[in-house]
Design a protein that fits this description.
With 121 residues, this protein is an alpha+beta fold. The chain is built from two helices and four strands.
Length: 121
């Protein structure tokens, strides 16, 4: 299942979101198959994210993944560095009042613990 930024959900075998999604989706569509093992799926996801990074200048430089199973969550951050930043990161400083905050709200969001996908009718 996937949860969109506005809160709707879909039950799909795979999904790609964000500015690098076109490159990632090409890998997913070409290589995904039902019943993949965890290691094969991790390889596919790593390659899909890498394709997104290499085809989009705003997708960062490393692959971060989370493997979510009934047994728990395994975080893999920075395990694969696709490309190094060429120019050092520069701080951007805006003059006071350039972009004033006119309203600030703190919202509580529901936590999804289980998602059930209904079979197509």
């Amino acid at each position: 299942a996937t949860v969109a930024p506005h809160g709707s959900t879909d039950c799909l075998p795979f999904v790609s979101m964000g500015s690098g999604s076109i490159g990632a989706m090409a890998e997913l569509e070409a290589r995904y198959r039902d019943g993949m093992g965890v290691e094969d799926a991790k390889t596919l996801v790593r390659d899909a994210i890498t394709a997104g990074i290499m085809n989009d200048p705003y997708s960062g430089s490393q692959v971060d993944m989370a493997v979510i199973t009934k047994q728990g969550v395994q975080m893999m951050e920075g395990e694969t560095v696709v490309q190094q930043r060429v120019d050092p990161k520069q701080d951007v400083i805006f003059a006071k009042g350039t972009a004033p905050v006119i309203k600030s709200d703190i919202l509580s969001f529901a936590s999804i613990t289980e998602v059930k996908c209904l079979e197509s009718l």
